[in-house]
Amino acid sequence: MNEEEYYVPEGTYWPIIGSIGVSTLFVGFANQMHGAEWGGSVMALGFAITVFMMFGWFGQVVNESTSGIYNKQVDRSFRWGMSWFIFSEVMFFAAFFGALFYARQLSVPWLGGADNNIFTPDLWNAFSASWHQMAFLAPGSVTDTALQSGTVMSFPVVPASGIETATPAMVVNPWGLPALNTALLLASGVTLTYAHHALRAGNRNQIVGWLVATIALGAAFLGFQIMEYGHAYQEGLKLTSGIYGSTFYMLTGFHGFHVTVGVIMLTVILYRVQKGHFNADNHFGFEGVAWYWHFVDVVWLGLFVFVYWL
Amino acid sequence: MTTATASHDDHHHGPEKGLMRWIKTTNHKDIGTLYLWFAFSMLLIGGALAMGIRMELLQPGLQLMEPQFFNQLTTMHGLIMVFGAIMPAFVGLGNWLIPMMIGAPDMALPRMNNWSFWILPFAGGILLSTFFMEGGAPAFGWTFYAPLSTTFAPDSTDFFIFAVHLLGFSSIMGAINIIATVLNMRAPDMKLMDMPLFVWTWLITSFLLIGAMPVLAGTVTMMLTDRNFGTSFFDAAGGGDPVMFQHIFWFFGHPEVYIMILPAFGVISHIIPTFARKPLFGYSSMVYATASIAFLSYIVWAHHMFLTGMPVAGELYFMYATMLIAVPTGVKVFNWISTMWRGSMTFETPMLWAISFVFLFTIGGFSGLMLGIAPADIQYHDTYFVVAHFHYVLVTGALWSIIAATFYWLPKWTGRMYNEGLAKVHFWWAVISVNVLFFPQHFLGLAGMPRRIPDYSLQFADFNMISSVGGFAFGASFILFTYIVVDCIRNGKPTTSRPWEGAKGLEWTLAPKADYHSFNKPPSRELIEAESQHS
Ligand code: HEM
Ligand SMILES: [Cu+2]
Fold first, then answer.
1. In chain A, N or C: fewer CB atoms in 10 Å?
2. How do residues A64-79 score in pLDDT, each as one tens digit?
């Protein structure tokens, strides 16, 4: 480690491999959606290349880091990089939260005739706006005549399951699984902090214990989330259930995806702890993942309050 | 680790040989060069599409193409110019210049830097490939409003969506890198308020990018699921709202236009002091003005939606907030003019571009103010007046600064001087033709000619023909530009390390053709002070 001199890493092939992987993934996906039979396999290939790239790239960085050629400045660059990456993730979620707030506070009430919307009584006379009751009409099923006669655009207040009163609010009771999941994630934030303290104190057994607990809590969260999705689908709350279903699944879905990534990263960190990669004052890898985990935690709190509770 | 140790010494040597140099490179100059050439090729492709548009509009009536294809041309022209030409060109300039300007050896995260670039050709390739797909390329305008881009769009739209994801990913990584570089690699003795304005404007632009690009990613993701997985974000039949699309899009879109102009402000704030031989007037007010513009740019988005439908309170708020932007922008224009005031001015090519930037960008700013007046915008919206407005700010603003920067720093990049006489001819050719091209579009718009239309009524014929002829001339000027740049790289006369007598800045203390790694030891406080913009 040389603190006097600047460090510039050597070139690698990983970025170009990453570009090939991600593009293959996307091209496969797009073709898959338009009925190409080979789309799925190309997608899988792209995914495999991307995963290979990540192992290779991070592996190289880990090797360089443990061989001690990075200096404090490199460490700080990683820190700036990770924190602003997390900020960009925050803004990604903000777009979906924005959609949620806009739909809930403005466009759905407007559809229901709020603020003297002259169209509602004429066109959609049977429709009364209420947030959880959105069900979806297949695109194209609305004909002009149906529209004018006011029959079709009156929303099917009855969800797909046919139970007239089963609004999704009753399907997903916030004080059931969601509250439990909130507790799990909050607890995982605490256990992770204990792991960090243990790392600072240099107690490897404790680090491992707390990390395993964190991973277990995260995995339990994911398990319950899958259970909840199962329930919701049975009760008729689907991705296709209008704007409520859209915001519900996209927000919780992207969050769940981030938890999954977080669990994978924590597992890698656990492995690296056991390999002895970190010491009391040099453990950016650990901290970066911890920041990420806390970010995922905070997003969940927003979800719990705005998607499930209110 | 042998490889790692080898890499450690690696930066004392020159670049690798052959194609692999460009693919593996972690060097900010190599990557900057890649970005600039990529942006230039995209500029030529986007320009070719624009020639198609102007050919169709040369005369009234449908001349050359189906309306559907015309719409593909305008859409792809806009997308390619914004995401393929202007933005990558600025990242390229940032890569080349920022490390030199802050006394650093390279960017903070060089491998990520490489990836930010190497995603672009793939994203650009996917975007361009849509032309060859069934149903053609996207034809809904660069703003891709739902439901045009959801319910009524061709299959290729999903490829467009993924291209946008990739482009956004690249920009975000680029922005993160610039923030880390400026905050962490700056010479220890350089305070924030010693930083040259190009560095300041890019730093602030990076925050705009990190705030805005993820929202764009969210928008296209919602489009993707609306199109393919049955969500109804933008579909009123499911309780969603197409107007919501516009809100989310413009929450990205307005910061985006400032992403394309703030670095331009930086470039101009370097060139004018050099050729006026005076320190920049009002350095700190420039920094604060840039920051205020960036902040305001997040809270004015719905001025693009005055006619979409909004409560009156919203219309008023967005109108007044938009007007506010004129204040910091005015501060900047004032400062540039005051810098020239009583300076010992000379008019080398970069200065010609910079001065014409001040004039022409200001015209675009004024037409922006007119558009920002909600009741007046009822008349102007979606007419050629808007087209004139954004071409004045983007072509004679953003692109102008990129060309100015090219001439200004080309000697530092190549160690050679371009042909000044030819460059002046090129300047006058471009500046006259660009005004012939875009100025009449103001009149067309005020008279009511709608934008994004392949045919028009007869009373618009004259101005359209003038505009098209200007367009062809402007397009042709890039042939000369290409020649001048290539000629400079190949045959230019060697220069000194500071070819411009009045130039300040750490980059001018480096060798005539800057070394492969800029500063291996940080510059001293004396040097930083002597080269700072406010001394
Ligand atoms: C004084 C500052 C500015 C003001 C007040 C302003 C205002 C506006 C307004 C109100 C519109 C919407 C017009 C309409 O659709 O009816 C508009 C459009 C536009 N502006 Fe500006 N603008 C300013 C500066 C800029 C700058 C610096 C850029 C880019 C570098 C820019 C790029 C654009 C673009 C691209 C559009 C058209 C978007 C579209 O395709 O619909 N503007 N501007
Ligand atoms: Cu705007």
1. C
2. 988 888 888 899 999 9
DSSP labels, B145-168:
-TTTTTTT--TTHHHHHHHHHHHH
Whether the CB-CB separation of B288 and B199 falls below 8 Å is answered with no
- Section A257-280 average pLDDT: 94
Residue A206 distance to chain B (closest CA, Å): 30
d(CA A44, CA A39): 9
Whether A173 has a pLDDT exceeding 90, the answer reads: no
Identify which ligand lies nearest to the alpha carbon of B254. Answer: 2
H or E element, residue B494 = strand B493-494
Quick one: which H or E segment has residue B417?
strand B416-417
**Residues of chain B neighbouring A8 (CB-CB closer than 8 A):** 10-11, 26-27, 105-106, 110, 517
Percent of chain A whose predicted confidence (pLDDT) is above 70: 83
In whole angstroms, give the CA distance from residue A170 to residue B180: 47
Over range B48-74, report the average pLDDT: 96
* H or E element at residue B196: none
Q: How far is CA B39 from the centre of its chain?
A: 10
Using a CB-CB distance cutoff of 8 angstroms, which residues of chain A are in contact with residue B231? 239-240, 245-246, 249-250
Q: What is the DSSP letter of B505?
A: S
Reported confidence tier of residue B535, pLDDT bands at 50, 70, 90: low
Angle at A215 between CA A211 and CA A219, to 5 degrees: 170
Q: Is B87 in the pocket of ligand 1 (CB under 6 A)?
A: no
Residue A149 has pLDDT above 80, yes or no: no
Index of the ligand 1 atom closest to the CA of residue B365: 1
- Contact, B377 vs B445, CB < 8 A? no
Pairing of strands B493-494, B416-417: antiparallel
pLDDT tens string B117-146: 999 999 999 999 999 999 999 999 999 999
Q: Which of B128, B165, B176 to mutate to test the interface with A (most CBs of A within 10 A)?
A: B176
Q: Which of A67, A95, A142 sits opposite B218 (nearest CB)?
A: A95
Tell me the β-bridge partners of B450: B383
End-to-end Cα spacing for chain B: 47
Percent of chain A with pLDDT over 90: 61
Helix pair B242-259, A72-102: axis angle to 10 deg: 150
For A72-99, give one letter per residue: b (16+ CB within 10 A) or e: eebbbbbbbbbebbebbbbbbbbbbbbb
Domains of chain A: 1-70 (1.10.287.70), 71-310 (1.20.120.80)
Which atom of ligand 1 is closest in space to residue B329's alpha carbon?
1
Alpha carbons within 13 A on the beta-carbon side of B20: 7
Q: What is the distance between the alpha carbons of residues A106 and B239, in angstroms, rounded to a whole number?
A: 11
Q: Of the residues B389, B401, B402, B442, which should be mutated to test ligand 1's pocket, given the most ligand atoms within 8 Å of the CB?
A: B389
The answer to whether the CB atoms of B1 and A18 lie below 8 A apart is: no
Mean local confidence (pLDDT), B425-438: 98
ipTM higher than the 0.85 cut? yes
Q: Would you say residue A148 has pLDDT above 60?
A: no
Which of A118-122, B72-76, B331-335, B430-434 comes out lowest in average pLDDT? A118-122
What type of residue is A107? S
What's the angle, vertex CA B438, arms to CA B432 and CA B439, rounded to 5?
A: 80
Rounded mean pLDDT of B152-176? 96
Residue A171's pLDDT is: 60
| Choice among B33, B130, B149, B171 that is catalytic | B171
Is pLDDT of A127 > 80? no
Percent of the residues in chain B that have a pLDDT greater than 70, as a whole number? 97
Q: How far apart are CA B139 and CA B75, in angstroms?
A: 6
CA angle A80, A84, A90 (to 5 degrees): 155
For ligand 1, atom 12, the nearest C-alpha belongs to B304
